[in-house]
Structure formats: structure tokens, C-alpha cells
Amino acid sequence: MKASVLTEYGRIEWQDKEKPKCDPDKVLIKVSYGCICGSDQHIYKGEFVPRTTTPMVMGHEFGGTIAEVGAEVSGWEVGEKVAPDPIIPCMECPACKIGHYPACTSLKIIGVDLDGGFQQYIQLPPHMLYKVPASIPDKYVALVEVMGVACHAKNRAGLKKDDSVVIWGAGKVGLCVLQAVRTVTDNTVFLVDVLPERLALAPQYYNNVVTIDATKVDPVKVIKEKTDGKGVDVAFEVVGHAHEVPGQVEPVRGCIQSIRGAGTVCVLGLSAETTPVLFKELIWKEAKIVASRVSHGEFAEVIDHLVNNRLKLDMIITDILDGSKAQEAFDILDNDPANNVKILLDFNG
Ligand SMILES: NC(=O)c1ccc[n+]([C@@H]2O[C@H](COP(=O)([O-])OP(=O)(O)OC[C@H]3O[C@@H](n4cnc5c(N)ncnc54)[C@H](O)[C@@H]3O)[C@@H](O)[C@H]2O)c1
Ligand SMILES: [Zn+2]
Ligand SMILES: [Zn+2]
User: Fold this and answer.
1) 152, 168, 238, best to mutate for ligand 1 pocket (most atoms within 8 Å of CB)
2) pTM score, whole prediction
3) Mean pLDDT taken over the chain
4) Residue 147 C-alpha to ligand 2 middle, in angstroms?
5) Distance (Å, rounded) from C-alpha 193 to C-alpha 239?
6) Choices 3.30.1300.20, 3.30.365.10, 3.20.80.10, 3.90.180.10: CATH for 2-143+316-346
7) CATH code at 150-291
8) How close is the Cα of 120 to the center of ligand 1, in Å?
9) Residue 226 class from Cβ within 10 Å (0-12 exposed, 13-18 middle, 19+ buried)?
């Protein structure tokens, strides 16, 4: 079989690799599509060292079909479509002991801490798999994980029907958060970014989305004006490493300033830098700030949304390249983020 192997940081080779055997307690999955995540872009550049080492196979967003079922495994059949949940909680730490797995202090993720799905076959224990109905297109199965991240954030924020929302960051994850939000509320969603091309996508698919280019106007001012001075019910920060916009507050603080009294800010962005927060702005509003990490079983919710046609995944799939072209795909994403959102890698060949 073939695998996209990160042989050294910045270099991916399409290599021959021995097809894994199927252990008695595992299932062997034939990968159909993988999808490149922002974390993969960091791994590719060596920014997750020492957590990652080369050679390695990336890929925590992928889907496939079962090719073989281990002798001790029951309830799974060859040919079934599956979406693997890549997280491996330690089950020992205080968070794991109370069943709060995303907060595991030694959480492992396949495709990050051990080899992942950017290869034609991978074997996994069945408890990591979610069944996906055959009617769901393979390319959508590769997006179940990132949509799980988005639905988890929506659930962490306690989003309610008719809530108004701002999403700061219309990137790979932000545009998934938009889709998760739209499964709950049709009220106004403000979408803030600094790339007009990315902002242009959502209004082609959704009504009542107000896009705000933070390089041209002050997002907080626009949100206040358009909500009669009240602010939105819920704000999602999905930027992480922010481009500095002169004269404007950083995204987390912008979120805090944009919500109504007793509103909620949900932070997803991962950045190595500190971000300024003026706590009295939060305290005066007696507002809630929650963090959201990976997902917590939202795979089932996402699959239900797919079955009921509630998502618009074509909005974010900007390219599909053969698995042998992984290096090219990473370079495209790095060089032209404005015109590329999610790039799928095809491992069917
Ligand atoms: N919490 C989690 O579970 C989780 C999961 C996946 C990714 N993340 C994190 O979420 C963040 C976003 O990931 P992504 O893959 O969508 O990245 P991305 O680069 O595709 O999207 C970020 C967007 O923010 C925009 N942006 C930059 N500076 C801005 C500013 N000052 N104001 C407004 N918009 C600005 C960029 O133009 C871009 O479109 C990253 O930090 C990533 O590490 C978190
Ligand atoms: Zn991801
Ligand atoms: Zn743990």
C-alpha cells in the first residue's frame, strides 16, 4: 500500500509501506479521503516538536470503509463506512475519571502522537469508530471530525434557538462552526475575518450572515450598530494566531466586547501567544467564557446532521488532490489561504 509519509519537516513522500495486518481486536480500514487540518499544517512545519517526530503519517481527519474485521470483533462488517474519532484519552487523569475526555491532560491523537490516516489502510480498535450510512458521500465522511469539533463548541456555548452569534475567524474551523450554529438558530450570524475571499463563501450558502472585514471596519462597532446597541448572545473565537489589525482589539477581546450582558464567549483558537483580556469587560456583563477542545462524542450528532442534510460541506471543500500530492496540498494551503479552505486527499487509488 501507499502512505503520505512526513519524512522530515516540510517534506512529504508518497512511499510504499507494508499494509497493516488486522489484529484480532481491531478492524482494518481502507481510507477513502483524508482532510488537512490547521494542526497538520503546524506539524508539517515542525511546530509541534517535540510532540511529533519524523518519519510519521499525519491525518486525524479521515474516513473509510472496513476492509477486514478482527477475529474477536463483533458488530462490524466488511464494507461498512466509518468515521474514526482520533482522540485517545488516558482514562486515568482527573478529567478522564469524570468522563470529561477532551480535557484529558495526556490526550493522544492519532495523526499527531501516533500514525494517522493519510495512508491507504489503517487498523483501529472498533470503539474509536462511528458507523456512517452508505448514502453519505465518502468525501463528507472525512469532514465528520472537524464538524464534531464545531458541534462540540456549539454545545459548550449552550447555543439556543434564536440566539444571535458572532464567529471571529471564517477559516477551516470557523466555517464549520457556522454550519453547527445553523443547525440551531436562523438568527443573524456575524462573520469576522481579514480575508475577503473567505468571507465571500458563507453568504453563497446561508441567509442572514453579515460579513465583516476587520481590516476595513471595526467589527465591535458594526455588531453593536446592527443589534441596536445590545450585542450578540454568543461569540465564538476561531482565529488563534491573529493578524494584528492596527487600532483594533484582539479577537478574544473583540468577542467579549460584542456580546450582550450575560452572554457567552466560546474560545477555540490555539495560539502560543498570550491575548489581552480586560476582565472588567467580562465581569460587568457577568458573562461566561468557555473553552472548547476537540469533540466529545459529537460524531453521532454530525452523522445525524449529514443524514438529514443539515450541513453545507461543499462550502468548505475547495480542492481534492490525490494522496500522492499531499506535499503540494500543504504548500497550496500555506501559500494561498485566501482561496483554499479544506483540501481533501484521495487515498482510493
Ligand atoms: N479547540 C479546538 O478543538 C480546535 C480544533 C481545531 C483547530 N483549532 C484552532 O482554531 C484556530 C482556527 O483554525 P483554522 O484551521 O480554522 O485556521 P484558519 O487559518 O483556517 O482560520 C483562521 C482565520 O482567522 C482569520 N484571522 C486572522 N487574524 C484575524 C483577525 N485579527 N481578525 C479576524 N480574523 C482573523 C484568518 O484570515 C483565517 O481565515 C487555530 O488556532 C486552530 O489551532 C482549535
Ligand atoms: Zn483537525
Ligand atoms: Zn486523561
Assistant:
1) 238
2) 0.98
3) 97
4) 9
5) 8
6) 3.90.180.10
7) 3.40.50.720
8) 29
9) middle
